[in-house]
Design a protein that fits this description.
Length: 205
């Protein structure tokens, strides 16, 4: 039989058993009658696990598996994601995810929290992109005025650098109104025209 007294092997096997039985095997209320249809190795693994918990007391192994519903509910209510909760319990985010997924109410609550986080992050990304477009728009206008160029002349200058005819007055207008952002090739061409670096043009760190 596998050496269940080896902590790493024990924990790995425990995770498989928890997935198999859909229960927190570290819970003292776990009914061994539920193992009637299991094989003896599962039974011995759980016994070995509980003994290791008892022997190690408040060690890392014990702390990992003393996460109860009330604690999770409180932390989720505070807006903490599983990665942040995992740090508090010094365990892997996957351990927290399994604990949440075992409880339908917690699972639903966390799903709503994660959705709110995604919406907030998307909003932040949009704001960052808008600010970036505004920074570039200001720099492009400044470069164009420094060269005393009309939008048409500026577009022609960009086309000459890139060897294309794709840049138009409308394109330059969109840049300066922060409607759109030049692609990487055009950013390089504009930077070259303004004698600046692309980072200086975009204001990126």
């Amino acid at each position: 039989m596998t050496d269940f007294l080896d902590r790493d092997n024990l924990l790995m096997h425990l995770r498989r058993l928890e997935d198999k039985y859909g229960k927190e095997l570290s819970n003292a209320d776990f009914n061994f009658d539920d193992l009637v249809n299991s094989d003896p190795e599962d039974y011995r693994a759980i016994l070995a696990f509980r003994k290791s918990i008892q022997d190690e007391g408040e060690t890392k192994l014990g702390r990992k598996l003393k996460i109860n519903r009330q604690q999770l509910n409180s932390l989720i209510s505070q807006g903490l994601m599983k990665e942040e909760i995992a740090k508090k319990f010094q365990c892997a985010p996957s351990t927290i995810a399994r604990a949440i997924n075992r409880d339908e109410d917690l699972k639903k609550k966390y799903h709503e929290l994660a959705k709110a986080h995604r919406i907030t992050e998307l909003s932040n990304v949009k704001q960052r992109n808008a600010k970036r477009r505004e920074r570039v728009a200001t720099k492009i206008s400044k470069i164009r005025f420094q060269h005393n160029m009309t939008m048409e002349q500026f577009a022609e200058a960009i086309n000459k650098i890139l060897g294309t005819t794709a840049c138009s007055v409308g394109t330059v207008s969109n840049w300066e109104r922060a409607v759109s952002l030049p692609n990487s090739k055009r950013l390089k061409a504009i930077a070259e025209l303004g004698c600046v670096t692309v980072k200086e043009l975009t204001g990126d760190d």
